[in-house]
Each structure stands twice: as structure tokens, then as C-alpha cells.
Write a structure and sequence with these properties.
Radius of gyration: 24 Å
Shape: globular
Strand content: under 5%
Number of helices: 19
Structural class: mainly alpha
Order of helices and strands: HHHHHHHHHHHHHHHHHHEHEE
Number of strands: 3
Distance between the termini: 68 Å
Largest sheet: 3 strands, mixed
């Protein structure tokens, strides 16, 4: 009976967050440039997928195509149920992230022996208003966070010690996160270092060979791309900052980097006062080190990524944004809950129950603040595109009589469902906000 109740609880913890993340997505899917651009790539045949990842705002592309591989798989498996519209990608990403959340929750439960710590961490991660607003988007930073969660769960389960094959899979997931979003590199590097480490020299050599081999294999598409496109732009923000520092033109900003990490961690949990967020992180980090000093592996995966991020962004010298730290969201949450919550005894039950109830009570408020990235006009664009498909003749263009964000591609739903644009056609359709359509020439 106990196992049945636990299984039912796990199923509920999966279904409810997934439903919250995708609720109303068919009405207000956020379809700006990143979303329709990457979904258009997913609509391509597998052989035509690019050898690099998404374009970055600091020029160039991410260093590998894993994000597009995953998005393509989502399109093939889930897309047909939603007319291959881009919201299928958002549903697929929300499905993967929720599965990763559950997997990480179980790993934390196994590692700490406390279901309270595991559930509290899960609730604080899955109900973050910022994360909720991004979970059902076609967006590569969200995929990077999802893959880091999965890799972290595999490490906490300790399965990589059983087999080099599991180690290779864990390394591949961690490095695929960097393919998806470059900001995941700090958590990925910490994970890869742990996977390769061993006090036995022979074991260390074998693990290191596997880790390096996996990374090298995953980088082959990028190497081929660079060989074929030697003049293509590369990311320059970090290299430019390092160059200025080495030339004495600037100094690393360690304090500013640490300060912004605390700001981002607090923002993710709706703690917008830097002082509070900073002190909570400091206290929980100290408590974690003292209480789990006999578990150096746990300390490493929770403390090394933020340390590397602070070091890395100290060399960035550009304007930071909170989403740069999205892949560190699960790590900052677990640092707090594992560091501060008791593991066993009556105190653990009392504190754990209080924290879980408190986290649950915050969910409605957080949901109300999670509607940041929504486009209510999406439903009108989709329904009107279906009507235009029924004309069975190509269009020259589709426009709207109402304003949309500048990077919206009005014709994308029409093309995703099989519509065709023809420059020789004279027919231009204008979609109105009430769903009606006007044309610039009479229909024949």
C-alpha cells in the first residue's frame, strides 16, 4: 500500500507541474524570433539539420547541434498531434523538463534519505515563476537547464560508477547542455570533472578517456562546420573580455559577478532583495559544507558550478542577465534545501512538512506571476491560418491589422501546417483580431 501511495504521489507531482506549464499554450504560445526560427529548423529533414546550435546574442552560434536534435525528435514524436505547430515544441520541452525534475527529486531523495528535502526542492524548482514562464517555450536556455537537471540526477544516483557506458551517457547529457546553451558550461564542466575523477590512477585514466572521447565526438559536427565555414562569426564576448584583461585594459569583476549570481538566484525564487538572497546562499553553503563534509561528491556538484560561474562571468565584462544563470537554478535551490533542512528525526518531519506546505501555498501566487512570456494573438493566427489553408491556393503574403511584437513571423503557423507562399500570387490575406480575414483581391 505504501508503494502504491508513493507511486501515486510521484505521478501527481509529474502531472500537475506539466499541466501548469502547458496550460493554455494553444491560446497564448509565445511565438517570437527564437521560437519560430528554431521550430523551422526542427521542421527540416534530419539530414538537413545544421551542424551548430542556435544563434547567440554575442555573435556566432552555440558549439553544437544537440538542441536541434532534441527539438527535431520532439517534432517527429509530438508535432503530428498538434499540426506541427510550434507549440508542440513548447509542450515537448515542458514534458522533458518535468521528467527531469521528477528524476532529480528521486535522486535527491536517494542521496539524502529525506523525502521532505526532495519534495521541497522539487516544489521550489518547479514552481519558480520565472521558470514557469519559460518552461513551455521553444528556447535553448530552458533545454540547457533541463539537461543539467538530468545529468545532476544521474550523478547523485551514483550510477556512473557502475559502468563506463552510464558514465558516457551522463557525460553526453552534460555536454549536450552546453550545445543547447553556452551558459550551462559551468555546471557541465563541474560534472565532467567529477565523472573523470578517481583516486585509483587506472580508473581515472579510463574515465578521463571516456569523458574526453564523448566530448570530442559531440564536437565533431562543430569542427566540420568550422572547417567548411572558416569565415563564419564566433562568439566574442568572453574572448574579448579575457583579451582586455590580459592586456591590462580591464580587471576581472569578481565582486560584481558574485553579487549578480545572488541576485539571479533570489530572482528565480521571487526573493528580490539582494541582501536576503545573498545571506541565504552564504548560510546554506556554510551549513552544507559542515553537514555534508563526508560527501565530497555532493559538495562538488552543488558548490563547484556556482564558483565556476562567478569566475567565468567575472571575465565576461558585459551586461549580465538573470537568464544566464538558468542552468544554476536547480543547484541554488538544492544548496538551500539540503544545506538548511534536517535529514532525519522528528525535527526533519516537522520542518519538512512546514517547508512543503509553505512551498505549496506559494504556488498560486507564483502562477499568477508567471504569465510574462505569452502572446494572446497566437490563437487567432493559428485559427486564421487553418482557414487560409482551406483556400487550397498559394498566398503571396499574410499580414495582420493589429500590432504584434516586432520579431513575430505571422506566416509561420500557415507554413508549419503545410501552407505555401508564392511570389507570383496576387492574393494577400490580412488577419483581423476577431479572426476574420480580408483579401486584397476577390477570390475566384
Amino acid at each position: 500500500m505504501k508503494r502504491v501511495l508513493v507511486a501515486a504521489g510521484i505521478v501527481a507531482l509529474f502531472v500537475v507541474p506539466f499541466a501548469i506549464r502547458t496550460w493554455g499554450i494553444s491560446q497564448h504560445f509565445w511565438m517570437l524570433e527564437d521560437q519560430w526560427r528554431d521550430w523551422e529548423v526542427a521542421l527540416l529533414p534530419l539530414r538537413d539539420l545544421p551542424l551548430v546550435g542556435s544563434p547567440t546574442h554575442v555573435h556566432g552560434y552555440t558549439i553544437g547541434p544537440a538542441f536541434y536534435w532534441i527539438l527535431w525528435a520532439i517534432r517527429v514524436t509530438i508535432g503530428p498531434f498538434f499540426d506541427n505547430l510550434p507549440r508542440a515544441g513548447g509542450i515537448g520541452q515542458a514534458l522533458l523538463e518535468t521528467a527531469a525534475d521528477i528524476f532529480l527529486m528521486l535522486a535527491v531523495w536517494r542521496r539524502t534519505g529525506s523525502p521532505w528535502i526532495a519534495v521541497a526542492g522539487f516544489l521550489l524548482m518547479a514552481s519558480s515563476a520565472f521558470d514557469l514562464s519559460l518552461a513551455a517555450l521553444v528556447w535553448n536556455p530552458t533545454m540547457g537547464e533541463t539537461l543539467i537537471k538530468a545529468a545532476l540526477a544521474l550523478v547523485l544516483f551514483g550510477w556512473y560508477r557502475r559502468s563506463l557506458w552510464v558514465l558516457a551517457v551522463t557525460a553526453a547529457i552534460a555536454w549536450a547542455a552546453v550545445h543547447a546553451y553556452t551558459g550551462a558550461v559551468f555546471a557541465a564542466l563541474a560534472t565532467l570533472a567529477l565523472l573523470a575523477f578517481s583516486t585509483d590512477r587506472r580508473v581515472l585514466v579510463r574515465r578521463a578517456i571516456v569523458v574526453v572521447g564523448v566530448v570530442a565526438l559531440l564536437q565533431m559536427p562543430y569542427v566540420i562546420y568550422r572547417y567548411k565555414n572558416r569565415n563564419a562569426p564566433v562568439m566574442s564576448a568572453v574572448s574579448g573580455g579575457v583579451s582586455d584583461i590580459l592586456q591590462g585594459k580591464a580587471a576581472p569583476d569578481f565582486y560584481g559577478s558574485a553579487r549578480f549570481y545572488a541576485t539571479a538566484a533570489g530572482y528565480f525564487q521571487n526573493v528580490h532583495t539582494l541582501r536576503w538572497a545573498g545571506w541565504i546562499l552564504i548560510l546554506s553553503t556554510g551549513a552544507l559544507i559542515v553537514r555534508y563534509r563526508q560527501d565530497p561528491e555532493l559538495l562538488w556538484v552543488l558548490l563547484a558550478p556556482p564558483a565556476l560561474a562567478i569566475l567565468g562571468y567575472a571575465l565576461f565584462l558585459g551586461t549580465l542577465d538573470v537568464y544566464y544563470y538558468l542552468s544554476l537554478l536547480p543547484i541554488s535551490v538544492l544548496t538551500v534545501v539540503i544545506g538548511l533542512m534536517p535529514r532525519s528525526g522528528r525535527a526533519a518531519t516537522a520542518v519538512g512538512a512546514a517547508v512543503v506546505i509553505g512551498a505549496l501555498s506559494l504556488v498560486p501566487w507564483r502562477m499568477a506571476h508567471s504569465h510574462t512570456f505569452e502572446m494572446p494573438e497566437y490563437a487567432v493566427l493559428v485559427s486564421s491560418s487553418r482557414t487560409l489553408l482551406g483556400l487550397h491556393q498559394p498566398l503571396r503574403d499574410i499580414r495582420t491589422s493589429f500590432p504584434l511584437p516586432p520579431t513575430t513571423n505571422v506566416g509561420h503557423p500557415y507554413v508549419a501546417m503545410g501552407g505555401v507562399f508564392d511570389r507570383n500570387s496576387l492574393l494577400v490575406a490580412t488577419i483581423n483580431l476577431d479572426g476574420s480575414i480580408t483579401y486584397n483581391i476577390p477570390l475566384r
